[in-house]
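for the recovery benchmark. tokens below, seq after
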């Protein structure tokens, strides 16, 4: 991951990318009214047709297609991987998505199905979605997923520990899990719907970044509310301040509840206005999505032809 002209992320994988638990002063209070007014104003931005098409194609390249259900099977994962490689087989100009995210035991299936495609394999780990297992089990979970072939690990923090004031425990777990990832990138899921306030979201973001996260992620998709524009803006502002202090690029992944192309474009506007063009890349921004892709494909057809295609024209997996 990384391009000749874009941010280099390789340095984030080493121990130099981590520091001590940040002091409370590093996490300033969040002005709720200002955050919500800002996302409201950005939602009203008008986007020209050419920019809209470019944004929709970029959104496809940024998607992590996800299946995290108890009924997941090798066949379902293979179908999802085909969708990831060729979102619309009738239009070869449509790009592949960024990654497919599955449970660890299905990583080998995804690895075989995606061989040679450039699509990354992400795996949830660390007792997803609760995060409530001993650290030794979490580390085994991560190591096994990486051994099976995962390029990226999506871990969950222990929200109970965080909300009980045990920030050092959360920090130490993230740092240990990051080390267990080896060369795999680590996305740290905050589960913002359980954190209770924007201030807690900001603080958890700082703890995760200082502990070594390559990405911070809103949600598991199992809890409501999941991703929201306001929570995403809080996390993006934390990333911006962290970059100013350390020079390190941290990625962002809103996940859960993003189903419409219009929503995706709104998030891209927020990213551009908060962090700039450097973050408008799959290496630094992702959508956790299971239903977004088809709506984006439908909107692209609408832009090009002036008419919608029915959802039945697109595969559901």
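predicted aa per position
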């Amino acid at each position: 991951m990384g391009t000749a002209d874009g941010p280099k992320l390789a340095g984030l994988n080493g121990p130099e990318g981590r520091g001590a638990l940040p002091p409370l002063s590093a996490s300033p209070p969040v002005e709720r009214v200002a955050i919500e007014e800002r996302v409201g104003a950005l939602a009203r931005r008008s986007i020209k047709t050419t920019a809209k098409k470019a944004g929709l194609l970029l959104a496809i390249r940024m998607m992590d297609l996800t299946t995290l259900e108890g009924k997941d099977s090798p066949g379902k994962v293979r179908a999802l991987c085909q969708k990831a490689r060729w979102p619309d087989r009738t239009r070869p100009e449509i790009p592949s998505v960024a990654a497919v995210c599955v449970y660890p035991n299905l990583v080998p299936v995804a690895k075989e199905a995606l061989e040679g495609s450039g699509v990354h394999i992400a795996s949830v780990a660390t007792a997803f979605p609760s995060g409530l297992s001993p650290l030794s089990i979490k580390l085994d979970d991560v190591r096994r997923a990486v051994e099976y072939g995962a390029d990226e690990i999506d871990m969950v923090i222990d929200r109970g520990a965080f909300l009980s004031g045990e920030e050092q425990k959360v920090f130490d777990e993230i740092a240990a899990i990051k080390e267990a990832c080896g060369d795999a990138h680590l996305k740290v899921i905050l589960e913002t719907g359980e954190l209770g306030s924007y201030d807690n979201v900001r603080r958890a973001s700082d703890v995760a970044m200082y502990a070594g996260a390559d990405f911070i992620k809103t949600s598991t998709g199992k809890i409501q509310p999941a991703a929201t524009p306001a929570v995403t803006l809080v996390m993006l502002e934390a990333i911006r301040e962290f970059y100013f202090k350390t020079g390190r690029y941290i990625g962002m992944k809103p996940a859960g509840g993003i189903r419409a192309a219009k929503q995706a474009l709104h998030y891209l506007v927020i990213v551009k206005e908060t962090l700039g063009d450097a973050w408008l890349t799959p290496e630094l921004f992702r959508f956790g999505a299971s239903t977004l892709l088809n709506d984006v494909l439908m909107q692209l057809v609408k832009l090009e032809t002036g008419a919608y295609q029915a959802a039945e024209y697109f595969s559901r997996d």
